[in-house]
């Protein structure tokens, strides 16, 4: 239905991008943007007989825009992609959901769901500059994963058995197995047992590693 809008914007010499009914028109100044908005709304409503959502249809600097989950910033006079902060928040909520300690999933099912969701999200945002975001989120996600295993090892006897597998000194096994800290605090202690390498061996993908393999920027 908006093919005619594409043609009209092209005829007027505008640079624009549209996905379904989500459209951005690029202008050189705020004044030019406001004038363009003023002129294009009557065309959409009076020529195409479509209703424009006035609350969502605004002029803004590119650094303030969220488009299909992406944000934008200027670096060395070039416009670059980033992940919008709202998309980052949704991403972290997804990780929280996948690493809930009381959802009754088996470890294998959790690993499968986690990897599928992470690959899908990273592939979608692979044009964004998000290496540092992935590194930091990786650390946080691994701690969430360690918390899952710590809860599963809830008995001291089970902790002795599981921690002993990793070849650490007996005094350290004893200290960790008898830990009375809460699950989240105890998960930090598991760094020396469920290391980055060990979590990878369990089957979890590295967010930063996967991003570096697929990124296109």
Proportion of residues in β-strands: 5-15%
H/E order of the elements? HEEHEEHHHHHHHH
The structural class is: mainly alpha
Give the mean pLDDT.
94
Major β-sheet, in short?
A: 2 strands, antiparallel
How would you describe what is shown here?
The chain has helices at 3-11, 30-47, 85-98, 107-124, 131-152, 156-164, 170-177, 183-189, 196-202, 207-214, and strands at residues 15-19, 22-26, 70-75, 78-83. The longest helix has 22 residues, at 131-152. The protein starts with a helix and ends with a helix. It is elongated. With 217 residues, the protein is mainly α. It has ten helices and four strands, in the order αββαββαααααααα. Strands 1-2 form a two-stranded antiparallel ribbon. A two-stranded antiparallel sheet has the order 3-4. The model has no long low-confidence stretch (mean pLDDT 94). α4 runs parallel beside α10 (207-214) and α5 crosses α8 (183-189).
Question: What's the topology here?
Answer:
Blueprint: H1 3-11, E1 15-19, E2 22-26, H2 30-47, E3 70-75, E4 78-83, H3 85-98, H4 107-124, H5 131-152, H6 156-164, H7 170-177, H8 183-189, H9 196-202, H10 207-214
Antiparallel strand pairs: 1-2, 3-4
Helix pairs in contact: 3-4, 4-10, 5-8, 5-10, 6-7
Properties at a glance:
single chain, 217 residues, mainly alpha, two-stranded antiparallel ribbon, two-stranded antiparallel sheet, 10 helices, 55% helix
